[in-house]
Specification:
Strand order of the largest sheet: 1-2-3-4-7-8
Distance between the termini: 35 Å
Radius of gyration: 21 Å
Number of strands: 8
Strand content: 15-25%
């Protein structure tokens, strides 16, 4: 993608952007600069980038002006907090995905109620899905000049505080999320190329990936995830219907991990968002 074309794309998006005051926001400026450099290096993320950030907010504004203003307010207040803004962007990605379903009459509407959940989807029959979105980004120390730092990734483990499992359990235990008797969904975005893919989530939420080797032949007899002590065995997850996870903004390719011990409220027919 040549620079003049990139300039035209960005210029067009900025001209029609519903919230021009945000364009000078530090978070937006970092994404803007990143768009140019990513295009130059051929590393542009097709799902999480500056153009999509502007476009998605515009689409939300067209669907529900107040909801768009809610996201904008939070982005403005967190302008200098990169991780918090990235978490808000995750919510924007998920919310925007369901707008088409609302237009097509597949769902009744989308709701925002911070006291209840990040995003609420009301279906045509009046039932609701409560989505709690969180963005996983490993924290790595910055190396001093001339020194090498070994990156120790722990998101795939089960007991480390930085693991997917412990992050989820803390949301339930400390923040009291995903614990009401209703259809709750934990939506996890893996927002770093180092942790994308099934392994990070499935290894952490299960008892890990195990391999059985025949000691005589030294050949692998079996391999796979061990679900004997999964996160769903924890009683605190009884009202967590499923875990949805996706990579680097690509919510359209999300995967589901359903809770076999989910306590369905009022014996309603099971549906998915």
């Amino acid at each position: 993608m040549s620079e003049p074309i990139v300039e035209d794309i960005i210029s067009d998006c900025e001209k029609r952007f519903a919230f021009p005051e945000l364009l000078s926001n530090d978070y937006f400026q970092k994404y803007r600069r990143g768009y140019y450099s990513s295009c130059e290096q051929g590393l542009l993320s097709w799902h999480r980038n500056y153009v999509n950030l502007l476009t998605f907010l515009d689409e939300i504004h067209e669907y529900n002006e107040q909801h768009a203003k809610s996201f904008v307010k939070r982005l403005r207040e967190s302008a200098n907090d990169w991780k918090n803004c990235e978490a808000i962007f995750s919510e924007i990605i998920v919310y925007r995905y369901y707008i088409r379903a609302a237009y097509e009459g597949l769902i009744r509407r989308l709701e925002l109620d911070a006291a209840e959940s990040d995003i609420i989807i009301e279906r045509l029959d009046g039932t609701k899905a409560y989505l709690e979105v969180f963005c996983v980004m490993p924290s790595f120390p910055l190396p001093e000049d001339g020194r090498i730092v070994v990156r120790n990734v722990k998101t795939h483990t089960q007991t480390e505080m930085a693991s997917i499992r412990q992050k989820l359990l803390r949301k339930i235990a400390k923040q009291k999320q995903l614990s009401k008797p209703r259809e709750n969904y934990a939506v996890i975005e893996l927002n770093d190329s180092i942790i994308v893919g099934d392994f990070t989530v499935l290894s952490s939420l299960s008892s890990g990936y195990t391999v059985t080797i025949n000691k005589e032949t030294m050949k692998i007899e079996s391999s796979g995830y061990n679900w004997e002590s999964s996160i769903f065995e924890d009683q605190s997850t009884e009202f967590l219907k499923a875990i949805i996870y996706f990579d680097l903004g690509n919510y359209g390719s999300r995967r589901f991990l359903f809770n076999p011990n989910f306590r369905a409220p009022n014996n309603r027919v099971e549906q998915t968002p």
